[in-house]
Each structure stands twice: as structure tokens, then as C-alpha cells.
Amino acid sequence: MTATIDILDRLVAFNTVSRDSNLDLIRWVRDRLEAAGAATTLVPSEDGRKANLFATLGPADRPGVLLSGHSDVVPVEGQAWTGDPFRLTRRDGKLFGRGTADMKGFIAAALALFDRAAGRPLSQPLHLALSYDEEVGCLGVRRLIEMMAALPVRPRFCIVGEPTGMQVVTAHKGKTALRAECHGVECHSSLAPQGLNAIHMASDLLTGLRRIQDRLKDGGARDGAYDVPWTTIHAGVIQGGEVLNIVPNRCRLDFEIRHLPQDPVEPILDGIQAEADAIVRRLRPDFPSAALTVGELSSYPALDTDGTAEVVAFVKTLTGGNSTGKISFGTEGGLFQQRLSMPTVVCGPGSIGEAHKPDEFVAEDQLAACDRMLDALLVRLT
Ligand SMILES: [Zn+2]
User: Fold this and answer.
1) Which residues crowd ion ligand 1, with CB under 5 Å?
2) Topology at the third CATH level for domain 2-172+303-381
């Protein structure tokens, strides 16, 4: 436990906000893991400013267990922190600092486990995967997954340590973020009907999105295990117009789909495209240059592990918990499952309710529970 907190103290001190480099943290972790006897591989980003890390301790010719986490954290600007977000502070059984819950607490526990496993005769290997740019759409891990796809032996199970209060989570929603660009025709606002108002076009699309949302809510898949038991569509940014007396010729609408695993995203995307096409078709006779494009900003798949899968029973025996859950927020787990067919669950210390906020914290008893789970894992691998 003390070891885990000491490591967390070091990890929090690395400012790894997604827009900045994570290399200082990654190199520090790599050196530590190599000192524990692990074989490590860095998988750098295209521009070399960031890297993923993959580490293996024990026999690499057999399938083992992968612990997975992301090294990046969300920014602190505009948030009222009591103390320095990049210095771990201990108070009332809680450990405060950016990333303590999401998800350096889990990474600290994983690194402490590698120390405890060092020199032990492992019959199955222990793996660690650390990614970058998770918080901006699970981007970095894709390069790591490409590397792992070429491994002669893939891990048997994957545990993604996002904060679930140490509950074994078998599923989460997928997400696709999209941008619509509306191209109208500008003119003096006193002659408004002679122009094509791009904000009005965006508003028509928004009406279409809300119609699709209603259909999904009323007739789509439903799963009461989620906070919001249906697939949602939400518009988060709308930008258009310069001044009130010009009919605007450009408007941008950013929106997202968060879909249940049972609601495949492709038909929803087709429906949105059909709405966009219908809007343009109506306008073209009068405005031949009218255009409305919808493009993808980012996307990750849902995670959907069968409750009766071996990985679920395996991790439940490690935590001693009986129940499983499903979460609305996304993780890299969907990509591990989809791209590598790797049986995956999410289970980690802390609560997502404490993440991304000022005075983010992880409770010490949550970290202790994570240490116990990983101790039980070590017994299974020895
Ligand atoms: Zn996270």
C-alpha cells in the first residue's frame, strides 16, 4: 500500500495532460519495469512526442494477463483546485491530485505489483500496456494494438483499470463524435430570403438528430444496467455567423452518438446522412451551391463482454465481488476486444464521479482493494 502511494506520488508529479508529451513519465516507468526484470517496448506516436509502453514479466511464449491504463490526464485550467493538482496530497483517507482516480492510481498499483512479482517464478506472464491520448478519443492505443496484433502470443485476458469502484464491469457504450459543416449563401439580412442561412440549415439538422434520438429512445435497444438505458445523441458545439445583419454562409455543429453495444452505430450514421441529404435536396433548386457535410471526428467501439465469459469469473475471484456492472463512459477496452479479440473487463480503483473535476481524488481504501486484487492475480500467475 505504501509502495503504491509512493509510486502514485511520482506519477502525479508528471504533468501528462493529453496535449503535452508523456515521454518523461513513460521513460521513468520503463526504467522501473526493466529494473524489475520486465521486457519493455515503446511504441511512439507519429511525431515522436508521445509513446505507448508495453511490458512483459515472465514467460513471453505463453498467454498471460494484461493490465491496461492510459498515461494522459485531462487539463486543470478553469478549475478551482485547493492545492497543486500535480502534487499528491493526503487528507482524510483520500489522495488528491490530477489523475489519481483517472487513472494513475491503478497504474501505481500495477507498477507496485511488478516490483512484488520481480524474481518470482511466474508460470504465466504479467503484461502492462500504457497508452497516450486516451482522453482525446482513445487515439494513442491504436498504434499499440497494431503492435500487439503482431505478437506471436497474445494475452489471455485484459483488465482495463479505469475507475469502477473495483467493481467488475463487462460492458460500456461506444461513441462516435461528428462534425456537420453547413454551407449557405450570405447576403444582407434585410434581404434574408435571398440568402441561404447556414445556421438555419444546422437547426434543420438538429431537428433531424432529435427525431432520430426519439426513435432510438422509444424503439431502440434498452439496457437498464446503464445510467441512461438507451443510445443518446447530443450536440455540444454550434458555431456560425459573424454579425446579426449578415445572413451567415457557414455553420458548424459538433455532436456525438453514445450507443449501447446492442445498437450498432452504422445504421444511425446512415440515418443522419439521410437527414443531411434531404435538407440539401430541398435547397438545391434555389441554391445550387448548398452543401451539408457530416464527417467523423473520432470513434471508439462499445465493450460487450458476456457475463458468463471466463475473464469475468476470473476477475471476480480476484476481487471477491459477486456482481458485475455496465458503465456509460468509454474505455480502451472496446478496442482491445474488437481489434484483438481479447476477453476484456474494466475494473479499477476510485470513482468516475471523482474524475475530471477539481480536487480529483482516489480513496486510500480503494487503492488498498486494488493492491489486494493484484496480489490475488500474482498468486494465480505464480
Ligand atoms: Zn480514464
Assistant:
1) 102-103, 162
2) Aminopeptidase (3.40.630)
